[in-house]
């Protein structure tokens, strides 16, 4: 094998270039296969060992076994009482109100959030300032405080009127009659959802490349058509995960309406255990229902995400069961271990 080497000085245009020529392939320039390289390439690939993953998995399994043992053997949970009240009429009525309140506030609040996001990204300083001020104010006040404020609105405005500003009134309403507990809950939760969904939508819209808008404008499309048909569909993969989390959080946040005696799922169970003093079993009834509902919403979120992620480079799990297995420490560690051994 013949080798040409350069010195330390900087090579000129006429200086020779270092090269390695293999006798086995005359005229070719490139790396040389040394003896034993083929054996190294043919050797099996062994995955890296992660002993702490197995330790963590063992700890999780032990804690899970302890939890299950406690739930089964502790008679104070009174699972028979939980089963008796799980589908009682009062609990199901409260469940229905919780579902209605969640759906109504999410639909209206998210629609307002899209409008606020469009205002925030608008070139108009007035619209942008209004959107910014609204989001800042609502996100600064806890939802429970907003709920109590709207429920006590009659203390500030005994009557609400519709008419000419600073002029005569056409219709007058009694505030205490108009703003009931359910209405106050709807207003407070809707305004809160609108503020947070506005930031979610704004972040999703900013993730879309500006070239998409410029290309649509060059085709003569209107702004509304560009937004609804070009920008928003491309922003959905970034919007859906956060919106799903917001919806699940809203479902659980509806429990605060029990403070103003709105008979949702939690307040319905409270009314029962205030009569029979079975606090823990009735709280477990509400807990199990919340777990079921959030699980259903999580499954729905998975399918919506998979729909909007079609055609993207990032590989998506083929099924919800696969996603569930991948997120369990035991199955995840076992699969990585098996894959490393088979490779």
TrEMBL record:
<feature type="compositionally biased region" description="Basic residues">
    <location>
        <begin position="1"/>
        <end position="11"/>
    </location>
</feature>
<dbReference type="GO" id="GO:0043190">
    <property type="term" value="C:ATP-binding cassette (ABC) transporter complex"/>
</dbReference>
<dbReference type="GO" id="GO:0006865">
    <property type="term" value="P:amino acid transport"/>
</dbReference>
<feature type="domain" description="ABC transmembrane type-1">
    <location>
        <begin position="95"/>
        <end position="301"/>
    </location>
</feature>
<keyword id="KW-0029">Amino-acid transport</keyword>
<dbReference type="Pfam" id="PF00528">
    <property type="entry name" value="BPD_transp_1"/>
</dbReference>
<keyword id="KW-1003">Cell membrane</keyword>
<dbReference type="InterPro" id="IPR035906">
    <property type="entry name" value="MetI-like_sf"/>
</dbReference>
<feature type="transmembrane region" description="Helical">
    <location>
        <begin position="94"/>
        <end position="118"/>
    </location>
</feature>
<feature type="transmembrane region" description="Helical">
    <location>
        <begin position="246"/>
        <end position="267"/>
    </location>
</feature>
<dbReference type="GO" id="GO:0022857">
    <property type="term" value="F:transmembrane transporter activity"/>
</dbReference>
<protein>
    <submittedName>
        <fullName>Putative amino acid ABC transporter permease protein</fullName>
    </submittedName>
</protein>
<keyword id="KW-0472">Membrane</keyword>
<feature type="transmembrane region" description="Helical">
    <location>
        <begin position="171"/>
        <end position="196"/>
    </location>
</feature>
<feature type="region of interest" description="Disordered">
    <location>
        <begin position="1"/>
        <end position="33"/>
    </location>
</feature>
<keyword id="KW-0813">Transport</keyword>
<comment type="similarity">
    <text>Belongs to the binding-protein-dependent transport system permease family.</text>
</comment>
<feature type="transmembrane region" description="Helical">
    <location>
        <begin position="130"/>
        <end position="151"/>
    </location>
</feature>
<keyword id="KW-1133">Transmembrane helix</keyword>
<keyword id="KW-0812">Transmembrane</keyword>
<dbReference type="InterPro" id="IPR010065">
    <property type="entry name" value="AA_ABC_transptr_permease_3TM"/>
</dbReference>
<feature type="transmembrane region" description="Helical">
    <location>
        <begin position="279"/>
        <end position="304"/>
    </location>
</feature>
<feature type="compositionally biased region" description="Low complexity">
    <location>
        <begin position="22"/>
        <end position="32"/>
    </location>
</feature>
<dbReference type="InterPro" id="IPR043429">
    <property type="entry name" value="ArtM/GltK/GlnP/TcyL/YhdX-like"/>
</dbReference>
<dbReference type="InterPro" id="IPR000515">
    <property type="entry name" value="MetI-like"/>
</dbReference>
<feature type="transmembrane region" description="Helical">
    <location>
        <begin position="54"/>
        <end position="74"/>
    </location>
</feature>
């Amino acid at each position: 094998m013949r080798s040409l080497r350069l010195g330390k000085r900087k090579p000129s245009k006429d200086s020779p270039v270092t090269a390695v020529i293999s006798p086995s392939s005359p005229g070719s320039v490139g790396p040389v296969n040394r003896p034993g390289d083929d054996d190294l390439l043919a050797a099996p690939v062994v995955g890296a060992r992660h002993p702490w993953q197995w330790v963590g998995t063992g700890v999780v399994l032990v804690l899970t076994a302890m939890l299950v043992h406690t739930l089964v053997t502790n008679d104070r949970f009174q699972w028979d009482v939980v089963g008796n009240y799980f589908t009682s009429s009062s609990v199901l009525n409260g469940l229905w109100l919780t579902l209605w309140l969640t759906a109504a506030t999410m639909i209206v609040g998210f629609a307002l959030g899209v409008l606020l996001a469009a205002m925030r990204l608008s070139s108009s300083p007035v619209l942008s300032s209004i959107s910014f001020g609204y989001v800042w104010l609502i996100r600064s006040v806890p939802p429970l405080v907003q709920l109590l404020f709207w429920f006590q609105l009659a203390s500030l405005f005994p009557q609400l009127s519709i008419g000419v500003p600073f002029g005569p009134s056409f219709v007058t309403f009694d505030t205490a009659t108009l703003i009931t507990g359910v209405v106050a809950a709807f207003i407070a939760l809707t305004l809160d959802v609108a503020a947070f969904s506005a930031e979610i939508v704004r972040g999703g819209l900013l993730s879309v490349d500006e070239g998409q808008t410029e290309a649509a404008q060059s085709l003569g499309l209107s702004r509304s058509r560009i937004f609804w048909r070009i920008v928003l569909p491309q922003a959905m993969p970034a919007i859906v995960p956060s919106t799903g989390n917001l919806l699940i959080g809203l479902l659980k946040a509806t429990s605060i309406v029990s403070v103003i005696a709105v008979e949702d799922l939690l307040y319905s169970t409270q009314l029962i255990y205030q009569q029979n003093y079975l606090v823990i079993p009735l709280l477990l009834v509400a807990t199990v229902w919340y777990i079921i509902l959030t699980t259903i919403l999580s499954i729905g979120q998975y399918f919506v995400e998979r729909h909007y992620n079609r055609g993207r480079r990032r590989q998506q799990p083929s099924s919800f069961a696969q996603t569930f297995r991948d997120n369990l420490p035991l199955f995840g560690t076992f699969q990585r271990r098996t894959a490393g051994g088979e490779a």
